[in-house]
Amino acid sequence: MHAINRRRFLQYAGLAAGSTALNSLPALAAEVFPAKPLSLVVPYPAGGASDTAARIFGESISKSVRQQVLVENYGGGTGLIGAGKVLAAPADGYTFFHGSMNEVFLAPLLNPAARYKPQDFMLAAPVSDTNIVLMVRNGIPADTLDKFIDYAKQGKGKPLTYATVGIDSIYHLMGDALGARLGLSFLHVPYKGAAPALQGLAGGEVDFAILAYQSNFDAMQQQGRLKVLTSFSQTLPASLKHIPPISRSRTVPDFEYMISGGYFVRQGTPAERVAVLRQAIGEALSKPELRARLEAEGRTVEQPIDSQQQANQFFDQYLARATQLIRSVGRKTTAA
């Protein structure tokens, strides 16, 4: 072969080989997930029940995927701000959401400002059901739910005030539903999360609060800063045996509610990346010490799941429960 032609042949051959190698790089890169830290968005300020659980899970997930999990708190708007952060991020699995019925379902179904629908999220895995409790401020002369109801009925026209994590949260709807059931008017006072709502109750800013249970409620009760009167569940985990279940009430024994939560990603996230997250969440749920920590916070912990089909079934159940709750208080969804 002529020397010049031979050089050209080798150059073309080298270019072709390089092109083939480059073309294979995206496929190889796509198999590596995660290749950088993950963002775990919590839609409430630090210190609340959601934040506590997210940090417990984040630690375990980080070890499973061998990448740092950064917990990011975005309080306000009954979770709308946090949900918006997830939906504004790329659908690549690097941003996932510690979500519940409040932010993923109730907010977009009730609040036109949400500008998203539940189906914009995809459930990677359910994690737990959380007990909801009713607490009263120090100074309310009642140590049971029924005595509190009697006290409320003796009011002289001034409605009792109650704190929740925000407008149109499950806790807000429960307060409205309880008032309607009893023929009472309660005045809702929304806060930007559980921690500020709890501070408002302990500081005497409101008369009672409806919130997801946290173990620090017990210490605050022992200090005389509040009283936990009931859990809105019929059966309680061992860690909550000291709290009366709603079934003990002679007035509203069937007023039962819990709040379900899990980890969500933006719809359109590649299935193989969602599967990586699901496996890491499942590994967390399989750890006895992690389950014990969650149960100590009043949660009924789910078993791991291994398919998107199972996750979708949970998603549909949550949506049905949210829709039924909205109807039960005489509200209409934004789609109605």
Provide the descriptors you would attach to this structure in a database record.
ten-stranded mixed β-sheet; D-Maltodextrin-Binding Protein, domain 2; single chain; 336 residues; alpha/beta; 11 helices; disordered N terminus; 2 domains; 19% strand
Describe it.
- The chain contains eleven helices and ten strands.
- The chain has 336 residues and is α/β, with parallel strands linked by helices.
- The protein folds into two domains: 38-129 and 259-328, D-Maltodextrin-Binding Protein, domain 2, CATH 3.40.190; 131-248, Periplasmic binding protein-like II (D-Maltodextrin-Binding Protein, domain 2), CATH 3.40.190.10.
- Strands 1, 2, 3, 4, 5, 6, 7, 8, 9 and 10 form a ten-stranded mixed beta sheet that branches.
- α2 (49-65) packs across α9.
Topology:
Blueprint: H1 3-30, E1 38-42, H2 49-65, E2 69-73, H3 80-88, E3 95-100, H4 101-110, E4 121-137, H5 145-153, E5 161-164, H6 170-182, E6 187-190, H7 194-202, E7 208-212, H8 216-222, E8 226-231, E9 258-266, H9 271-285, H10 288-296, E10 299-301, H11 308-328
Parallel strand pairs: 1-2, 1-3, 5-6, 5-7
Antiparallel strand pairs: 3-9, 4-7, 4-8, 4-9, 4-10
Helix pairs in contact: 2-9, 4-11
